[in-house]
Every structure is written in C-alpha cells, then in structure tokens.
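Task: sequence design from structure.
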C-alpha cells in the first residue's frame, strides 16, 4: 500500500492540507475517504476538550495497564513518527460509513464539505482553547502542546492515505 510521507508542524498545516484535498481532489490509498477521515479526526480532536467516551470496563483496564507501563513511550513514538500501524483498533463510534453519490465509490461532495468544515472548526476550536484538558485514556494527562502534537500525529497518519491530485 502506498501512502505519502506527511508531517505536520502546526494545526494550520493540517488545515492547508485538508483544504487542498477537498478542493483539488485526491487519490485514496487506504480504506477511508476524506469524509470518513475528517469526521474521525474531528471526533478525536474534540475529546481532549469535551471528554473521552467511556469504554467498556475491560477496555478501561487494558488501557490503564498500557497507560502505566507504556503510555509515555507510545506517546513519544507516535508524536515523533506521526504514524501508527494501519488497522489499529479505534472506537467504533468514530468510524464513519462511506457515503457515495451517483459515481460508484465517489464521496458525496456535500457530505465531504460538511465533514471537512467540521474538522476545520475543531482545529480552530483546539487552536483557541486554553482550558483544562481531559486525560487521554491511553497516554494519561497531556499538556496543551502534547495534546496538539498528538493531534498533529493523528492527522498526519490518516491524511497520509490520501494524496492530492
């Protein structure tokens, strides 16, 4: 599977890439289109501000063990590499269906525009936010800069599967 090398230094870099993908089109190398990625990323970008969804008790136990034993090392690796292995599990509530219009496999432009606008709004919100952050279930408490670094890495990972045309 091909994917582009992508690293973000700022949230504005993410916005610029997102707008390029939306306005100019893209080739998809992963399983998710731009709408699916944008909605997924918007959900995760809002969690540090609004709170993370409550996982089932057995997942919370696994996450707490991982947080204590590997959390900071995993955070550093992910933030530095801005990639994670494809196919990593995620919350099912943050996985969106592909919406198609008349052309088979082509995402509805209205749905895509709404998803991109939603993520752009979440980026602006996080950029301006300076209140307390909810601790990550996997990484624990993060500073504002660490939370942004995590979001940059998450965005780089997902958007690397979409190449601008």
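Answer:
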């Amino acid at each position: 599977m091909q994917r582009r090398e992508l690293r973000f230094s700022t949230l504005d870099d993410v916005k610029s890439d997102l707008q390029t993908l939306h306005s100019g089109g893209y080739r998809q190398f992963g399983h998710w289109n731009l709408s699916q990625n944008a909605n997924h990323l918007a959900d995760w970008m809002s969690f540090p501000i609004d709170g993370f969804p409550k996982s089932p008790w057995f997942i919370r136990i696994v996450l707490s063990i991982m947080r204590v034993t590997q959390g900071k090392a995993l955070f550093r690796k992910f933030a530095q590499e801005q990639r994670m292995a494809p196919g990593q599990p995620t919350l099912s509530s943050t996985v969106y269906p592909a919406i198609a219009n008349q052309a088979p496999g082509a995402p509805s432009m209205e749905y895509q525009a709404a998803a991109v606008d939603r993520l752009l709004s979440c980026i602006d919100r996080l950029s301006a936010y300076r209140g307390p952050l909810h601790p990550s279930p996997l990484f624990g408490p993060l500073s504002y800069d660490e939370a942004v670094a995590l979001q940059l890495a998450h965005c780089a990972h997902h958007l690397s599967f979409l190449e601008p045309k």
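The beta strands are 26-28, 162-164.
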